[in-house]
Amino acid sequence: MFKFELSTHSVDSYDHLLLILEEAGAGSPPGRLYHVAYGPKDRMKIVDVWDSPPTMGPGQFQEFAEALVPALKDVGIVLQEPDVHDVHTIIHSKRTAAKGPRRFLVKFDPPGMTAGQCDEIANSLDEAGLGAPAERLYHVCYREDDELRTISVWEGEEALRAYFDQLALIAVDLGLTEVARTEPVIEEVYHIIDGSP
Fold first, then answer.
1. What is the pTM for the complete model shown?
2. What is the mean pLDDT of residues 22-48?
3. Contact by Cβ (8 Å): 108, 150
4. Residues 42-74: tens digit of each pLDDT
5. Helices 157-173 and 115-127 meet at what angle, rounded to 10?
6. Exposure b/e, 176-186, CB count within 10 A at least 16 = b
7. 103 with 137: CB under 8 angstroms?
């Protein structure tokens, strides 16, 4: 998974970048499962999820990078080194995003969360009927250093807040107080490209 934070990435430069990539045939590259642009309109951030770890050798990401780097230069964005993380799990909704409702990206970074704790919480959420809420479009759990973190995309703020309230209660029941105390960070989504099969 990639995570970019580009300080000069405004909505206008992002839209121009998408147009250039589409014209170059690289708007929806093979291997990219999900793309979301989010955050303040004058400092957009991007998360891309790829089906395999990217390398700079021959392959799907390299082909995309050959179109991306000059396109970034054309719109005046200096490519910064992205954060790259191994993915633990992906949960993808069977439906696509509607045009009307606001969408939100939620980052959840509980300190010290392990794979076992993440799986235990996921199983408890499944048992409570909350494993795949209709309003959650995409969820990825990834490893950063020795801890697991999550990013998810939601339609509707009320549903995501109810979900995280229930997650906190489950974490308390499981004795995971650090997880229960962690507040999700919520930012508005600007654009989504869903490349999932």
1. 0.88
2. 89
3. yes
4. 888 888 888 766 554 456 777 888 898 899 899
5. 110
6. beebbebebeb
7. yes
